[in-house]
């Protein structure tokens, strides 16, 4: 029972830390363009083409 006194606040603290990191990444624009990076592989660069 004494272990729960330490484990519950640690678990809540880590959960709040993860939530804060998620909201920080939202504010920095990490999730603005989800499809752009996935589709960028299909775009051919003009400078790599041989004449």
Automatic annotation (TrEMBL):
Pfam families: FixS. Signal peptide: none annotated. The keyword Oxidoreductase does not apply. InterPro entries: Cyt_oxidase_maturation_cbb3. Keywords: Membrane, Transmembrane, Transmembrane helix. The chain crosses the membrane at residues 6-26. PANTHER family: FIXS PROTEIN (PTHR41532). This is Cbb3-type cytochrome oxidase assembly protein CcoS. It comes from Sphingopyxis witflariensis.
């Amino acid at each position: 029972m004494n272990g729960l006194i330490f484990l519950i606040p640690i678990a809540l603290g880590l959960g709040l830390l993860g939530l804060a990191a998620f909201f920080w990444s939202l504010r920095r624009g990490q999730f603005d363009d989800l499809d752009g990076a996935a589709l960028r592989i299909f775009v051919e660069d003009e400078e790599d083409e041989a004449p």
